[in-house]
Each structure stands twice: as C-alpha cells, then as structure tokens.
User: Fold this.
Amino acid sequence: MRLYKNKRSNIHRNGLSASTNIKKGQRIIQYKGKKISHDKAETDPKYDNDKEIYLFNLNKQYDLDGDFKFNTARLINHSCNPNCEVFDYNRQLWIFAIKNIKKDEELTYDYGFSFDKTDYKQYLCKCGSSNCVGYIVRKGSRWRISREAVIRQKVSSREATR
Ligand SMILES: C[S@@+](CC[C@H](N)C(=O)[O-])C[C@H]1O[C@@H](n2cnc3c(N)ncnc32)[C@H](O)[C@@H]1O
Ligand SMILES: [Zn+2]
Assistant:
C-alpha cells in the first residue's frame, strides 16, 4: 500500500502527505533520479540557484538530479522540523519516517543545504514550524543564521549612534 499521496502544500505549491498513519521508522518512498557530477551541477544552467532545486548531494563527486516526473518524491518540501529523513537503503535513497506521522500530515525532510554567507538568503523557508529560522539551511548550520542576525543588529545600532 502506498503511504503517500499528492497534496496542495501550505509550505510551497505541491507536496506529499501521508495517505495513512505512518509509524516512525517506516520506509515511505524512493527518491529517484539521474546521477550527475558536481561539475555539471555547477555549470549547467538547468541547476542555477534561481530555479527550483531538485538536486540531492550523493557524495564528494556526484549529485542526484531528481527533476523527473517519475520521481514523485521530488515533491517533498523542506521543513526545519521535519518528520522524514533520507537514508541509503540497499544503495538507493529512500525517505523514512523519523516520527509517527498522522494521516494527511505533510511529509517533509531537511534539505540539508549548507550555510553560505553570501547566498543563504536566496532560500526563504516557509515551513511554518515554531523553530523555523526563515531560510532553508541544514539543522547543524542554523546557529550561524542567528549569529549573522546578532552581528547585523550590532552593526546597525552602532551606525545609529554615530
Ligand atoms: C524539490 S521542490 C519541492 C516541490 C515543490 N513544492 C513543487 O511544487 O514543485 C523544491 C522547491 O520547493 C520549494 N520549497 C521546498 N521547501 C520549501 C520551504 N520550506 N519553504 C519555501 N519553499 C520551499 C523551493 O522553491 C524549492 O526550490
Ligand atoms: Zn523553516
């Protein structure tokens, strides 16, 4: 039985939601795509930052381009408080539940974007979680955003007192 269905998302356009209650640890859907080199991802205009991103980092050499109709998992949106995670399962990428998920709840995972000081602001996050940092940045790097905000605040209050 399929554990997911398409839905209109509150986060961004289309997404996937649970078609039934899902238990933590259940395997939900495979993330399929075509393997491309990092070089191609960086130089081919198909992967420009101003377009929607369907790239999945595989390792130091390759990304997986998931921008294909056959890859239904491409519709899963990012959340700062996700209920799924992507794991390697028999050399395939699969979306697993990391929490118990109720029927109709939107499926989300952490896109794992690294923090890049110059361009993280391009990726606004609208996940709506109480811990949302406002940008799509991986969990381990989100503290950098609050630090940036503190530095910005200090600079502007210093300028205001000049
Ligand atoms: C792989 S697509 C996800 C499916 C997309 N919602 C759709 O309808 O095609 C990735 C794109 O969805 C959007 N997206 C995903 N998660 C988001 C979030 N938390 N906040 C804002 N936009 C998001 C961004 O535009 C991102 O580049
Ligand atoms: Zn968020």
Notes: Strands lie at 4-8, 14-18, 27-30, 34-37, 55-57, 62-65, 77-78, 84-89, 92-97, 108-109. The longest strand covers residues 84-89.
